Known about the structure:
Layout: H1 7-51, H2 55-61, H3 68-81, H4 86-89, H5 99-109, H6 116-167, H7 169-175, H8 179-206
Helix pairs in contact: 1-2, 1-5, 1-6, 1-8, 5-6, 6-7, 6-8
Amino acid sequence: xxxxxxxxxxxxxxxxxxxxxxxxxxxxxxxxxxxxxxxxxxxxxxxxxxxxxxxxxxxxxxxxxxxxxxxxxxxxxxxxxxxxxxxxxxxxxxxxxxxxxxxxxxxxxxxxxxxxxxxxxxxxxxxxxxxxxxxxxxxxxxxxxxxxxxxxxxxxxxxxxxxxxxxxxxxxxxxxxxxxxxxxxxxxxxxxxxxxxxxxxxxxxxx
Length: 207
């Protein structure tokens, strides 16, 4: 039976790191979704305003998946329907990530103070930026797919090596025979985990 008291703290450490990493990934995916939905909204709003000059009707016509941005846009629409000033209504979009979202928020906030010609120019710029962002995102994803594959391979090799050490009686006895060896194993394990998470974080930042 395994009675090595170092294993319990290691398992607790791993569990905490896994939970923290999963939470980080969930937040990153939410940010990515907001950015993608904002790009879709930006591509739609100019076409909708060309048909109907009403900003409220254009916002009502935007079709994006359920999520944070859609809920925020619905709040903007509700505020406009209650005849709140556009700058007040646009506050529902504040705090959301992404350059496209910020530009859309600014466009809504200043809609009552700009001419139709300026609004059309700003919408064209917004649409071009959305197209550029989508193309850039596509290229980045293709590049990062290879990087992520390499990282997964290294993570798998590290996990296999650690599992071998913990399950092999000879190696387990070697690393857990005294405090210095236990400390060495802990330090190596922590360094491997931190390095893995660091590279994952850098990849997510680039994505």
